[in-house]
Every structure is written in structure tokens, then in C-alpha cells.
Write a structure and sequence with these properties.
alpha+beta; 3 domains; single chain
């Protein structure tokens, strides 16, 4: 068996140390004296053994290796120049694929699903921890796959296994969880589902987007029977999606749509975590990278066109004004709702679409406002943003694809405090003084904060723990063929 060659994720940081940032384009030292530099040898090794690129065949290191051999035999200037030229070309091609991926997002997604990144990507390899963590996880699952994976669990007598009872499948379940690192207790012929195994099952469920109740039911068994190869495929798909828009940001807000959570990353660590509610399948939250530019405290809720079209206009045409009034919805001719129009004064049958309506539809600030007390804005054509909510009970549910596209945040005040306190002294009392005043206040950020709305069905945290989530929008299925051959190569070539 061949050894598993580790991902050279540290190679990115190594090369960044060599950049001459004063020049318009990054410059690297590939030859020193009559020999290739350590960075050049690391580059060749990284390209030849990068497990994360599904199109690795596009990068051919043979011409560069031959040029290095020629230079070492005859160290003349022309041979050194050949090495420098070929090394820089390989490096730029490699950086382009690692930064932008092997395929184009418009091959799989519409612009309603994936918002194209504005501007050019960096010419040097980015070092974002979201990708670096997934690369480490990929290496671990490749190692498991070439060792033969884990046993498949077959349950014959019952669909549910409960703690403190005996089942013949228990030894196999212990072995299966041991291989993936969830269980480190004894593995023998004891068939009792004990508390040590229950703790392992709960952690397994938690990291697979399942209800962590310790009961091994059909959903948990299905997750346990996902093979290492299937997990490698899922990780590769997610790395490819990330590369389409992930940048080298030292500080950013990160929303994982199918994971239903938000995190703030500073450097390589997560400094804040919150549950979120995202768009339901018929109104998916789009993937994008944008920048938070301002916050609004005590916001008005202004209905976007999709909600006007699908929810508000039908009620108006039915004459069901009481339902809208119960929710605090008003119609106005101005953006701020100062010139309110009674619903009864308008013949709503004259309008067939939101585009034809000469009105804004708003909900005034207050405890019943759909946006709660705060929203964080990154202006985009979808009118999607982060906000508080008046439906806080929804955060108790494990499945939270329930909104009309915007992201509802469980801990919005804490998030705002964390972001805003980076640029000025701020207390929670300062924030609540504004909220209690009931005045709508727009507060800009001096420095815009990058925010990612990402679709990750595989996610690895800085501590090396890997999480897998349901493909709620069916995006993984669209991309399966892109990585399937690469998964086979990663397993068979290492055996």
C-alpha cells in the first residue's frame, strides 16, 4: 500500500511569505544560485499530490521537472530562465484553480441561486480557514477509505435501537463509530447499548444534522452507512463550491445555509456562533460573497417583490384586509411609510403583478415586526440580509429552511455588538437605549465586513471535527458527476 500524501495546505502560507507585495503582481523566488528553491520543490510536490482539485490533469509538471534537471546539469542563465518561467506559469495556473475552482458556477446554478463574485480573485493562493479545515478532513477520510472503510450496519429485527437494551448489531456499531473517531470504548461481544456508546451516537447525530437523542433510527442508520467514498465526494463538491467565491479575508461573517448556523471568523478561529433560519426550498437563500455596510435598529419591514407577488397581492385581491392588518402591514406611497393608503380605497383587481403596484408595503417597528429589532444590510439585488425575528420559537427545530430567503439570526444583538465593537467602544446599554427609544436608526460601519452565504453540506471546524448536513436544495446532486472519477482516483491510486 502506498502512503497517503498529506494535503500541502501549509504550502499556501509558505509561498505567501515570499510575496513582494510592493510589486503590482506577486513575485516568487524559484531559483537560488544554481539550484531550485525550497518553494519550487514544494510547489511541484503540492501540484502532483493535491487531492482537492478534480481537474488536476490540467496541470503538467513534466516540462518543469525536465527544465530543473537541465539546469542542474548545465547551470547557465538560459536554463535558469526556463525554470523561472515554467515555475511561475505553473504557480499561476495552480493558484487560479485553487482560487476559482475547476468549473464554472453557471454550469450548475442560475444567477438566482449563485450571485457572481464582483472583481478579480487574488493571483496568489488564498489561505481561508474554511477551505483549509475541509482539506484536512478530506485527508482523514481518504486514509479511512484506503484502509477499507467501516462495516455496513444492517438492522433486521427493529427499526429503532434504544439505550440500555441489547441488540446483536451493537458490536458492529461500536466498530463503525470507532473507525470514524466517535467511539473509543471497548469493542467486544457485549450487545448492550450502554451509556458510553450513547454518548458517541449523540455526537455522531449532532455532527450529521440529526436530532441528538441517542436513538438509532432509520435516519441515523442511513448516515452511519454513508461510506468514506461518499463523504469524500461530498467534501470535494463543497470545496469546489467554496472556491468560486471564497477570498482571503482575515475577518468575516460566514453563514452555512444547509447547516443552519452563522459564525464570525477572525484569523483561523471562530469567535461567534449562532443558529439561523434560511430560505425554504421554493425561496432558497442565494449563495454569495458580499460586504455588510450598515445596520438598522428598530427597522421597518419592507416587503420584497416576491412576497408582494405571492403573499400580499392575493390577500388584497380576496379582500382579506384583516389578515394583513393583523400582521401590521400597511400600504404607502413613500418608502418610509409616511403617506399611508387605506386598503379599502384601492381597487386591487386592477393589478396583476408586483411590478404594476405604485405602493410600498411595510410593517412598522415594534415587538411584532418580522425583522425584530435589528437588520444587517449588504445591498444586493435579491434584497437578502441578516435580521432579528419575532418568531423565536422556530430556532428550537433542527430543520430551519423556513424563511423567504433572508437569514434570521438567533443572536442578532450579540452579533451586532461583536461587529460594531471592532471599530468603537460600545456597550449593550448603548444598543438597547436605541431600541427602547423606538426610533429607527441607520448605523454605518466604517469598514465594510465581508459576509458569505455558503452552501456547505460538509463543514470542518478549526478543531478538526467534520459535520455533514442534508442537501436541502438538491445542489450536491447537480455536481456529483464532477467529482466521482476523482474520488475513485484518490482511493485506488493510494492502494
Amino acid at each position: 500500500m502506498k502512503r497517503v500524501i498529506p494535503i500541502v495546505w501549509s504550502f499556501t502560507l509558505l509561498l505567501l511569505a515570499q510575496v513582494e507585495f510592493s510589486s503590482p503582481e506577486p513575485k516568487y523566488r524559484w531559483v537560488q544560485g544554481d539550484s531550485p528553491t525550497k518553494e519550487l520543490l514544494e510547489l511541484v510536490e503540492a501540484v502532483e499530490h493535491d487531492m482537492t482539485l478534480t481537474c488536476i490533469q490540467r496541470l503538467d509538471t513534466t516540462p518543469l521537472r525536465l527544465a530543473i534537471e537541465a539546469m542542474e546539469k548545465v547551470p547557465i542563465d538560459s536554463n535558469k530562465e526556463d525554470v523561472e518561467r515554467l515555475a511561475q506559469k505553473l504557480f499561476e495556473e495552480y493558484a487560479k484553480l485553487r482560487n476559482g475552482g475547476c468549473s464554472s458556477p453557471d454550469r450548475f446554478f442560475t444567477e438566482e441561486e449563485f450571485y457572481p463574485v464582483q472583481g478579480e480573485k487574488p493571483r496568489y493562493p488564498i489561505a481561508n480557514p474554511i477551505i483549509s479545515n475541509l482539506e484536512r478532513a478530506l485527508e482523514g477520510y481518504q486514509r479511512i477509505a484506503i484502509m477499507g472503510g467501516w462495516p455496513r450496519i444492517e438492522v433486521n429485527d427493529t427499526a429503532y435501537l434504544y439505550p440500555e437494551r441489547a441488540y446483536p448489531e451493537i458490536p458492529a456499531i461500536k466498530e463503525r463509530l470507532r473507525i470514524e473517531g466517535f467511539y473509543d470504548g471497548p469493542i467486544d461481544e457485549n450487545q448492550t447499548y450502554d451509556q458510553e456508546l450513547r454518548q458517541a451516537v449523540v455526537e455522531f447525530q449532532r455532527r450529521h444534522g440529526l436530532k441528538p437523542d441517542g436513538i438509532i433510527g432509520p435516519a441515523t442508520l442511513k448516515a452511519m452507512n454513508m461510506s468514506p467514498e461518499e463523504k469524500i465526494e461530498k467534501i470535494l463538491i463543497n470545496i469546489e463550491r467554496l472556491r468560486w467565491f471564497l477570498q482571503d479575508d482575515p475577518y468575516f461573517v460566514f453563514v452555512n445555509i444547509p447547516g443552519f448556523f452563522l459564525e464570525v471568523y477572525e484569523g483561523n478561529r471562530s469567535t461567534f456562533h449562532s443558529k439561523v433560519i434560511v430560505g425554504r426550498k421554493k425561496r432558497p437563500t442565494p449563495m454569495m460573497r458580499h460586504e455588510i455596510s450598515y445596520a438598522v435598529l428598530n427597522p421597518y419591514w419592507r416587503a420584497p417583490k416576491t412576497i408582494i407577488e405571492e403573499d400580499i397581492l392575493p390577500l388584497l385581491q380576496e379582500g382579506n384586509f384583516k389578515e394583513l392588518e393583523r400582521k401590521g402591514i400597511i400600504a404607502a406611497t413613500d418608502y418610509r411609510g409616511r403617506n399611508q393608503i387605506p386598503f379599502e380605497d384601492v381597487d386591487w383587481s386592477l393589478y396583476t403583478s408586483a411590478e404594476e403596484l405604485p405602493f410600498y408595503f411595510l410593517q412598522k417597528p415594534g415587538p411584532h415586526n418580522f425583522l425584530g429589532y435589528l437588520k444587517l444590510i449588504f445591498p444586493n439585488r435579491f434584497d437578502v440580509y441578516l435580521h432579528d425575528t419575532n418568531h423565536r420559537t422556530l430556532f428550537k427545530y433542527p430543520y430551519r429552511a423556513l424563511s423567504s430567503g433572508c437569514i434570521r439570526v438567533e443572536r442578532p444583538i450579540e452579533l451586532y455588538y461583536l461587529l460594531k465593537s471592532k471599530e468603537k467602544k460600545l456597550t449593550y446599554r448603548d444598543i438597547f437605549d436605541i431600541i427602547w427609544s423606538k426610533r429607527t436608526k441607520r448605523v454605518p460601519f466604517k469598514r465594510k465586513i465581508p459576509v458569505y452565504l455558503a452552501y456547505l453540506t460538509a463543514y470542518a471546524d478549526p478543531d478538526g471535527k467534520c459535520y455533514f448536513f442534508n442537501d436541502i436544495y438538491g445542489y450536491d446532486r447537480r455536481m456529483g458527476k464532477l467529482v466521482r472519477n476523482r474520488v475513485h482516483q484518490l482511493v485506488t491510486e493510494a492502494q
